[in-house]
Automatic annotation (TrEMBL):
Domain of life: Bacteria
Assembly and oligomerization: Homotetramer.
Keywords carried by this UniProt record: ATP-binding, Isomerase, Lyase, Metal-binding, Multifunctional enzyme, NAD, NADP, Nucleotide-binding, Potassium
Catalytic activity line of the entry: (6R)-NADHX = (6S)-NADHX; (6R)-NADPHX = (6S)-NADPHX; (6S)-NADPHX + ADP = AMP + phosphate + NADPH + H(+); (6S)-NADHX + ADP = AMP + phosphate + NADH + H(+)
Name of the gene encoding the protein in the UniProt record: nnrE
Name of the protein in its database record: Bifunctional NAD(P)H-hydrate repair enzyme
Entry EC no(s): 4.2.1.136, 5.1.99.6
PANTHER family: ATP-DEPENDENT (S)-NAD(P)H-HYDRATE DEHYDRATASE, ATP-DEPENDENT (S)-NAD(P)H-HYDRATE DEHYDRATASE FAMILY MEMBER
SUPFAM superfamilies per record: Ribokinase-like, YjeF N-terminal domain-like
């Protein structure tokens, strides 16, 4: 079955190929395709701001500016008052024809100099730069972007916010912060992860009538995750059918990390969950969550019988990097069991790299990813797609690169992007929770790729449900009830907060 354009994410080169295919399939000119984009932009503008009477369209010299000029023509015809502000005295290529159409319709163009204030309008439309933009904006462009962002007026971006790089989502300089972005023909992959998710606002795709036959021959670079869960269990199921997760971690003062991972594994459906931790934590864990089988482990010898009974390992939450944690880490990895590696499990891996031959999922945040690759965190964030794929290739594992728009990559280059989640999830313990959910999916028979995709989706969607009571102050444990509801395909809201 062909992939829906609404889930498919493409590189800039792929989008250009789709544009050429669209021209041939629709038998239209570039100008006519640009006019379709303008119609889609006007539709988006009227739906989101039906009371808007005056708009300002800020046009760059290329095709993105051309979309803006034609939007101006249509908006005037629809009865709106339109101000057009241009970065340059002239436009190039097809945009020049669009600019001429705007003038022929009686429109005027004001050149942006930065010397005068922006027009007082109901909506600013960003049509400065599109997918061909690959640098930091210059001084004049930056001044206009900053003025628009500071105006407290709603912003509609055409195709993508100016200043954002379509392939990576990097923002090397000033960048438009849009309230709504309408992107044309296909989703650009960089708009769905990292800093970009703050810049695009509400994101809509307008395919401009491009037929499925244009998309079919081209494999997307990545996909947005679909909302999925495991099938219902057989009525005769028993706990042994759903795996035994062993959480290894909780050094001095870090019992909470191991508990969160273990409890998440239970709520996500693992049949049994054991915790190998420091002796000082056992009583507290047994009292707080008796369903977790907590065991005091002083070193590798005590861990080995637990490894034999386990089917999946969750290695790293609160593990520490000292002698105790390192010894357990080595022993656990040598056991050859399917493993989820997180937190200090990843920090130890950065010290002692290895390629995994057993099913393994790594779940780094950008800081851990930077240590694993030996680069700066900024390097990771500049191109999260390349970083995730390189980590997967280098370690022979499925990798979840966490953050806004988490990425899931496998060693062959396959990559999915999570469209859910919220800023409230940027709090302690959320990563430990994800570790437990991934481990539970592995324990219930999923292969690493499916386990990672299911877990990331369930975890992020649970976070969104929990955030209905507010993002600020959201706790990792607030996700446990919605996680259980989603894992059983129950309707939104079918849970109670503890």
């Amino acid at each position: 079955m062909p992939t829906s354009p609404h889930r498919a994410l493409y590189t800039v080169d792929q989008v250009r190929a789709l544009e050429h295919g669209a021209l041939d399939a629709l038998a239209v000119s570039n100008h006519e395709l640009m006019l379709r984009a303008a119609h889609a932009a006007l539709d988006t503008l009227r739906r989101h701001w039906p009371q808007a009477a005056r708009i300002a369209i800020h046009c760059g010299p290329g095709n993105n500016g051309g979309d803006g000029f034609l939007l101006g023509v249509l908006a005037r015809q629809a009865g709106l008052q339109v101000d057009v502000v241009a970065l340059t005295e002239s436009s190039r290529g097809e945009a020049a024809q669009a600019r001429a159409a705007w003038r022929a319709a009686g429109g005027s163009v004001r050149r942006w100099t930065g010397a005068e204030p922006l027009p007082a309008v109901d909506v600013h439309v960003d049509a400065m730069y599109g997918i061909g933009f690959s640098r930091a904006p210059g001084a004049a462009e930056s001044a206009l972007i900053d003025a628009i962002n500071a105006s407290a007026t709603p912003v509609l971006a055409l195709d993508l916010p100016s200043g954002l790089l379509a392939d990576s989502g990097d923002c090397p300089g000033a960048v438009i912060r849009a309230d709504v972005t309408v992107t044309f023909i296909a989703h650009k992959r960089g708009m769905h992860t990292g800093r970009a998710v703050d810049q695009v606002g509400v994101l809509e795709l307008a395919t401009l009538g491009v037929p499925e036959s244009v998309y079919a021959p081209l494999r997307p670079d990545a996909l947005l995750l679909a909302a999925e869960t495991l099938p219902p269990r057989a009525r005769h199921a028993n706990k042994g059918d759903n795996g035994h997760v062993l959480v290894i971690g909780g050094d001095h003062g870090m019992a909470g990390a191991a508990r969160l991972a273990g409890e998440a594994a239970l709520r996500a459906g693992a049949g049994l969950v054991s915790v190998a931790t420091r002796a000082e934590h056992v009583s507290a864990l047994n009292a707080a969550r008796p369903e977790l089988m907590a065991h005091a482990v002083g070193g590798p010898q005590a861990l080995e019988p637990m490894l034999e009974r386990a089917s999946v390992l969750a290695l790293g939450p609160g593990l520490g990097k000292a002698a105790w944690g390192h010894a357990l880490w080595l022993t656990a990895l040598d056991a050859g069991k399917p493993t989820v590696l997180d937190a200090d499990g990843l920090n130890l891996l950065a010290r002692e790299p290895r390629v995994f031959s057993t099913p393994t999922v790594l779940t780094p945040h950008p800081g851990e990813a930077a240590r694993l690759l030996g680069v700066a965190v900024d390097d990771i964030e500049r191109d999260r797609f390349s970083a995730a794929r390189e980590l997967a290739r280098r370690h022979g594992a499925v990798v979840v690169l966490k953050g806004a728009g988490s990425l899931i990559a496998d060693p062959d280059g396959r990559l999915d992007v999570c469209p859910w989640g919220n800023p409230g999830m940027a709090s302690g313990g959320m990563g430990d929770l994800l570790t437990g959910v991934v481990a539970a999916m592995l324990a219930q028979g999923c292969q690493p790729w499916d386990a990672a995709c299911l877990a990331v989706g369930l975890h992020a969607r649970a976070g969104d449900l929990a955030a209905r009571q507010g993002e600020r102050g959201l706790l990792a444990s607030d996700l446990l009830d919605p996680l259980r509801a989603l894992g059983n395909s129950l309707p939104d809201g079918a849970f109670l907060y503890a």
